[in-house]
Design goal:
Order of helices and strands: HHHHHHHHHHHHH
Number of strands: 0
Structural class: mainly alpha
Radius of gyration: 19 Å
Strand content: under 5%
Helix content: over 70%
Distance between the termini: 29 Å
Shape: globular
Number of domains: 1
Number of helices: 13
């Protein structure tokens, strides 16, 4: 093995970790923002303007690719509509709706089930089985996520109160699991074209629900809080995180890429310790170590034997 090959491999591993780390960090912020503005910013309005602004911001960069990619996306219209519905229109609208009546802790708790549901979705839709390395990685990572959520006390999980908001969040998690599994059928187009199209389609799908919400007496307040919330979720939780996550699915496959969700409690913990001055505890180290070990187990196996994507799937898509 040459020095150049070794260096290229190291860069590939580093890039792969970055693709997994950024979505977890930005999704942690998304959950916090959704909960922070609950009762101030209506959930459908937050989702609608998130995707509308995201599409507007992406469009100038995607335009030259869209002219070439429009035809293959039209040929794959059913898949594009399904991806926009499950991953854009439904998931975050359901999450913001859940945040109106449940806690950020419950949102993170239920999100931690997403990697398991992604495995179920890929099996039910495509009969794709999970490898031993992936299964072990998911199990270890899930144990780490639950350690952080329970603060090292398993009995705390049994004491969580669940309500209607948690059912909305469960529906959101199922929706994103289906989106992740369906990414293997994504047409072979540039990442920016794909983002611009799915964001725009998702916003159009939400338009009648946004109009209904507004006419029912819940208009979007024009405040600094709403502007900052929409700005964050449009730029960071949408454009940056979706580019990274979609590419992580292309590189590692959906079952492994879904482990990025377990990084949400990790970053929530680190933000609390370094940003809010909360005291670190032993369970923080145990949970983060388990999650890192689980992701390492799954990604190493996936890089060495990632199954080929279906025609027109993510492996054919240019990076980001």
């Amino acid at each position: 093995m040459t020095e150049a090959t070794t260096e290229s491999g190291r860069r590939g591993i580093a890039d792969g970790w970055l693709l997994m780390l950024l979505p977890g960090l930005l999704w942690a912020g998304n959950a916090v923002v959704g909960r922070a503005v609950a009762g101030q910013v209506p959930p459908v309005a937050l989702a609608f303007w998130r995707w509308t602004l995201g599409a507007i911001l992406v469009l100038p960069f995607a335009w030259r690719h869209l002219r070439r990619d429009l035809r293959p996306m039209l040929r794959a219209a059913p898949v594009m509509l399904a991806l926009a519905a499950f991953g854009v229109a439904a998931f975050n609208t359901l999450l913001y709706t859940a945040a109106q009546t449940t806690t950020a802790l419950n949102i993170v708790m239920l999100q931690s089930a997403m990697p398991v549901l992604i495995v179920a979705a890929t099996f039910l839709l495509f009969r794709e089985t999970v490898s031993t390395g992936q299964a072990l990685g998911i199990a270890v990572s899930l144990a780490g996520a639950l350690t952080l959520i329970a603060q090292g006390d398993p009995s705390m999980l049994l004491g969580l109160d669940f309500n209607t908001g948690d059912l909305w969040m469960l529906a959101a998690v199922v929706s994103y699991a289906i989106y992740t599994a369906l990414l293997r059928r994504r047409p072979a187009v540039h990442g920016l074209s794909f983002l611009a199209a799915t964001f725009a389609i998702g916003a159009l799908m939400l338009l009648p629900f946004y109009a209904t919400e507004t006419l029912s007496g819940k208009p979007l307040p024009l405040t600094m809080t709403s502007a900052l919330a929409i700005g964050y979720v449009a730029v960071f939780a949408s454009i940056v995180s979706y580019l990274c996550f979609n590419q992580a699915v292309a590189r590692f496959g959906p079952n492994t890429a879904g482990l990025a969700v377990h990084l949400v409690p990790v970053f929530g913990t680190l933000l609390a310790i370094f940003g809010l001055g909360e005291a670190p505890h032993a369970y923080h180290g145990v949970g983060i170590a388990l999650i890192a070990s689980g992701i390492l187990l799954a990604t190493r196996r996936s890089q060495s034997r990632c199954p080929p994507a279906a025609a027109g799937g993510p492996s054919d898509v240019p990076p980001g």
